[in-house]
Amino acid sequence: MDIVGQLQEGMTRFSAQESRVAAFILQNLSFTASASIDELAVRAGVSAATITRFARSVGCEDIRDLRKQLAQACERRTSWLNEESAALPAAWRDKLSLISANLEQQLVSTPESTLQKLRTRLQSARAVHCFALGAQDIALATLLQHQLLSIGIVMNLCQDSALMRMIASTLSDDHLLLVLATGEADAILQGATLLARVQEATIFALTPANHALSNMASALLPLPENAQAARYALLLLVDLLNDALLA
């Protein structure tokens, strides 16, 4: 795994300051590969000492070693691009590389058996429901709802915390519930999910690994903790699910 993969994987264990540095680097690979420690600290909004500690925390000897590994990662990713893509502005190439790395990581972390189980349950469930709260998660859930509808599967999306417990209380073992959360789940969402579990509904969690909701679910399709990465990851999962349902 190269330095970019290490940074993405480390987002689940980094401190708040380290996560801030990692997120900035992942979105600005070309800049970071040539920036001084002071320039990087200013742009990332942390101290130079934090940058030094961060470099060591990801296995680099110092900031020079970090820059070297980032430059090598940029060079490898540039070699994957065709001539037209290679001519794009550096910031756009960084974005493309980051998306590619996110999608690759999502494929690696997605169990094919779990995707097949979800496919089977979507086809056999008497009703399909989805719980999501917050602007980001509701937008992702709405996307999932539209994609499933295009292949003939109706998903009832609940984004009202007051209705979640009421809906959960009506579920049974022939219902499927998807719970989608890219951030921390509040007490209402956790309570409604737990009630659905008591009602013996089949629950699939679309959350980061080790999320509170994943522990209540029958199965987990993991999403990245980073909100932007989660958006691309869900798009990929929807495409994979569509392929499985249409097969």
TrEMBL record:
<dbReference type="InterPro" id="IPR046348">
    <property type="entry name" value="SIS_dom_sf"/>
</dbReference>
<dbReference type="InterPro" id="IPR047640">
    <property type="entry name" value="RpiR-like"/>
</dbReference>
<dbReference type="GO" id="GO:0003700">
    <property type="term" value="F:DNA-binding transcription factor activity"/>
</dbReference>
<dbReference type="Pfam" id="PF01418">
    <property type="entry name" value="HTH_6"/>
</dbReference>
<dbReference type="GO" id="GO:0097367">
    <property type="term" value="F:carbohydrate derivative binding"/>
</dbReference>
<dbReference type="InterPro" id="IPR000281">
    <property type="entry name" value="HTH_RpiR"/>
</dbReference>
<dbReference type="InterPro" id="IPR009057">
    <property type="entry name" value="Homeodomain-like_sf"/>
</dbReference>
<dbReference type="InterPro" id="IPR036388">
    <property type="entry name" value="WH-like_DNA-bd_sf"/>
</dbReference>
<feature type="domain" description="HTH rpiR-type">
    <location>
        <begin position="1"/>
        <end position="77"/>
    </location>
</feature>
<dbReference type="GO" id="GO:0003677">
    <property type="term" value="F:DNA binding"/>
</dbReference>
<dbReference type="GO" id="GO:1901135">
    <property type="term" value="P:carbohydrate derivative metabolic process"/>
</dbReference>
<protein>
    <recommendedName>
        <fullName>HTH rpiR-type domain-containing protein</fullName>
    </recommendedName>
</protein>
